[in-house]
Each structure stands twice: as structure tokens, then as C-alpha cells.
Design goal:
Layout lengths: L3 H10 L8 H21 L3 H10 L10 E3 L6 E3 H13 L12 H16 L3 H20 L12 H17 L4 H12 L12 H22 L15 H6 L17 H4 L14 H13 L7 E8 L1 H6 L8 H4 L3 H10 L10 H4 L2 H6 L3 E5 L14 E6 L4 E3 L16 H12 L5 H12 L16
Parallel strand pairs: 3-4
Antiparallel strand pairs: 1-2, 3-5, 5-6
């Protein structure tokens, strides 16, 4: 029987656009468009500036592969460009969610840099994205229990291998060299939940994209790694699955379901941890429906999952970055501003007296019936107790707006794209870029997207 490492390699190396269902292609293109927009929006954040200054000097004239920083347009060594762009893609926590993590924040920067460096076209980019997504999904299914509760940041762990699969596909690695790329990436996979709410969280994502590109590049040059790094008793699945329950021996299903179609992408409407999104939808709906003023509120209670509560570790945030991982802030902003957007995720807004005064009035409670094997509980509930003693309740909220189950319309997705890109590009270029992503399989190169300013 062919072992897991080799099967993953054969699958990724053989990925063809024609084999991907149309719905899978559409989802991949949505991931590209949304992530490029939030990457451009995040490019000016302090974390991105530090990484660009300290780790991504100008490209030399000594040849080698280069790619663009977005939206600045400056050329850097491809591995430096993907690191900076990867940090920018995740720093706002506005990127999409699926597979217990943020697949596009890793895959899109890696694919854009690799495709620009090697001259790949849009059809190859879509195939590379799906290869990475499916490898990520396959590995996640073999690791029992949420990785978050073990301290691992799934995006940084699984994303590293997925990016190697995507970049290896763009480099047209054969199955043998693809196996080396995936196994090498497995040894570079790491990231901690403890660093959520700091600059390091987005750095972990940028590093995952960079490591995937590096692994593919080295494998293409003949660098070797273990032929059984995933299924070995002391390999990837055992290490991240905590041992004997991990599904190391099970082969890939020859009649497999396309996970990109089944699980899709959840596009964010709010630039903070996805664990807050259902509750934000519920809270905004309650205050608008019942015309609740901030001064009317005695307390807000959110019933949510224990893993969600673990991620939302900042109970009294003082900065916009800390507030991204705070249910208390999410509820305060929803109740006071009736929105939670980029304008609210600033240090000044977070420190406003009325926001700070509301934080102690928000409480959370664990839902007793979490979804088996899921990171999130099957639903969230929000209740607001008014000073009159009246209690208003949201009921069970199972899906956030923008989720795979309740997707954004094309016009809503375009509106988010336009809002994120803003004045970084002229209106005509913004439109061309969005339309290019939504027809990505037809474009000849990354340059045709006009993402980088001259």
C-alpha cells in the first residue's frame, strides 16, 4: 500500500484545473479576491512595517526569484515578499476562515509570490490553491480534537504544508520531489495560540507561507526529506495529534469528497477573531431591533464554545490588536457603535471611556453541547439584560453572515474589496483587479491583476 506522504504528493502534483468542480473553482477565486484586499488593507500596519524593514531588504541584482510587495510594488526576493505579504494578509484578522484556521491568508500570498517568480498563469494558480486546501483538509481530518486546545495554531501548522503543496504544484514538481517538499515543510510547521492578540500571530501566518515556498524551492533543487514524514510513528500526524488516536495508517479515499466544496470558505464581515462573529451578528440585531441605547444596558451575556473562549483571551483590551481577541470588546462595540469595523479596531476607539466602562458588563458562559470534533460550538447565543429588568435574547445563531452556509453576494464581496483597497489604487485598477480575480483561470500572469503600484 502506498503510504500517506506519497499519496499526498501524488495528489498535489497531479492537480489539474479541469478536475476541480466549478463550485470549487469559484470558492478558490473568492479566497484570492478577499485575501488580496485585506492584504492591501493591512500593508500599513506596524507589524508589517517591522517585518519589511528588518527581514525584507531590496532584491539584489544577483538573479534569483523575485516578487512584489503589495501594494507598494517594490521587488524583493520571493521568500521575503511572501513573508511580508503573508503578515499583511492576516494582521487585521479580516481574512477568511475554514479548516480550523485561515487557509487563504497562507495560500494566496504564497501562490502570488511563487506565480510571479516563475511566470505561472491564473489556471495554475487556481489549481495550486485547491491542491493546498485539500492537503490541509486531509491532514486536519487525521488529527483528533481541536489543535487550539493543545496550544497549536492550526493555520501556522497545517498552512505550512498546504503552502508547500501549492508552491510545489506551481513549480510542477513530480510526485517524488513533491513528497520531499511536503516532508520538509512538516519540519517547519509551528505556531502557538498563546501568541494570539499580538504581532506574532500574523507573523506565524507569514512564516507558514514563506516556509511552504522555501520547501518547494529546495525540493526542486534536489533537497531531500523523509519519505514517510506524515505517517511515521514519530512523524507529523502523531506529533500534532498527540499519539495513538491519530489516523496515520488510513490511506486517501479514492472516491474522496472535494473538501473545498463541502467546507468552503467563511468570508469575514468583521476584522477580528471569527470566534466573535456569530455573537456580533446577534448583538447588532438585538440593539437595532429593540432600539437599545448603551445607557439602557445592565449586562450582556454570550453563550459560546469553550475553545472560542480560549482564543478570546483579552478581557480588558487596551489596543486595537488586543481587541481582536476579546468578546467583551466585540459586544461593547456592537452595543455602542452598532458596528465592528476597521474604524473601531483602533487604539483610540478601544480606549474610549464608554467602551472601557462596558467591558466589565459582558460575561461569557460555555455551551454544554459543543460540536463533536469541532473548534466552535454548534451555535452562539446573546442575551441583553436591560436596567428595567427586561431580558432580550437572540436565540441560537448557527451561522455568521458571510459564512459558507450564508455567503456574501457578489456585490457584497466587491464592496468589501473596494473598502479594503480604498485609495491604494485608482478606481479603474480596483475594478480590474477584482474582476481579474473572479476570472482568475483566464489571466496570463500575476502582472495582469495590476496589484502592485509602479
Amino acid at each position: 500500500m502506498t503510504e500517506l506522504t506519497q499519496q499526498l504528493a501524488e495528489f498535489a502534483a497531479g492537480m489539474a484545473l479541469q478536475a476541480i468542480p466549478e463550485e470549487g473553482r469559484r470558492i478558490a477565486k473568492t479566497g484570492f479576491a478577499d485575501t488580496a484586499a485585506v492584504m492591501i488593507a493591512g500593508a500599513g500596519e506596524p507589524a508589517v512595517g517591522i517585518v519589511a524593514r528588518e527581514l525584507a531588504g531590496p532584491a539584489t541584482n544577483g538573479g534569483g526569484e523575485t516578487a512584489s510587495l503589495l501594494p507598494r510594488g517594490g521587488m524583493r526576493a520571493a521568500e521575503a515578499a511572501v513573508l511580508v505579504n503573508g503578515v499583511a494578509a492576516h494582521v487585521l484578522d479580516y481574512d477568511d476562515v475554514a479548516l480550523d484556521g485561515h487557509p487563504s491568508a497562507v495560500l494566496v500570498p504564497a501562490i502570488l509570490a511563487q506565480a510571479e517568480a516563475t511566470g505561472a498563469n491564473g489556471a495554475e494558480m487556481v489549481a495550486a490553491y485547491v491542491a493546498g486546501y485539500e492537503v490541509w483538509a486531509e491532514l486536519l481530518a487525521r488529527v483528533p480534537g481541536p489543535m487550539h486546545t493543545k496550544g497549536w495554531h492550526p493555520t501556522a501548522v497545517l498552512g505550512t504544508v498546504a503552502a508547500a503543496a501549492a508552491c510545489g504544484r506551481l513549480r510542477r514538481l513530480d510526485a517524488g520531489r513533491m513528497a520531499h517538499a511536503l516532508s520538509l515543510a512538516a519540519s517547519m510547521a509551528a505556531g502557538l495560540v498563546a501568541n494570539f492578540g499580538t504581532m506574532t500571530k500574523s507573523f506565524q501566518v507569514g512564516r507558514a507561507a514563506q516556509s511552504g515556498l522555501t520547501a518547494a524551492k529546495l525540493a526542486a533543487a534536489g533537497f531531500t526529506a523523509s519519505p514517510d514524514a506524515f505517517e511515521h510513528a514519530a512523524g507529523f500526524v502523531t506529533a500534532f495529534g498527540k499519539g495513538e488516536k491519530a489516523e496515520r495508517p488510513r490511506p486517501l479515499d479514492s472516491n474522496r469528497t472535494w473538501q473545498i466544496v463541502r467546507q468552503g470558505l467563511n468570508v469575514k464581515r468583521y476584522p477580528l477573531c471569527y470566534a466573535t462573529h456569530r455573537a456580533i451578528d446577534a448583538a447588532i440585531d438585538l440593539v437595532e431591533k429593540h432600539q437599545v441605547r448603551p445607557g439602557d444596558i445592565e449586562k450582556i451575556n454570550v453563550a459560546t464554545g469553550t475553545t472560542q473562549m480560549l482564543m478570546l483571551r483579552n478581557h480588558r483590551p487596551q489596543t486595537g490588536l488586543e481587541a481582536k481577541f476579546s468578546m467583551e470588546f466585540a459586544m461593547a462595540s456592537a452595543a455602542i457603535a452598532r458596528r465592528v469595523g476597521l474604524g473601531e479596531l483602533t487604539d483610540g476607539f478601544v480606549r474610549r471611556p464608554e467602551i472601557q466602562a462596558m467591558l466589565p458588563n459582558v460575561t461569557t458562559a460555555a455551551i454544554r453541547d459543543p460540536g463533536v470534533g469541532d473548534t466552535f460550538a454548534p451555535f452562539d447565543e446573546v442575551s441583553i439584560t436591560l436596567k428595567t429588568g427586561r431580558n432580550i435574547e437572540s436565540g441560537r445563531i448557527e451561522h455568521a453572515l458571510g459564512s459558507h452556509a450564508k455567503p456574501m453576494s457578489a456585490s457584497q464581496l466587491r464592496a468589501k474589496f473596494e473598502d479594503c483597497v480604498g485609495d491604494a489604487f485608482p478606481a479603474a485598477d480596483r475594478a480590474q483587479a477584482f474582476e481579474g480575480f473572479m476570472a482568475l483561470e483566464k489571466i496570463p500572469s500575476v502582472a495582469a491583476l495590476k496589484l502592485a503600484r509602479a
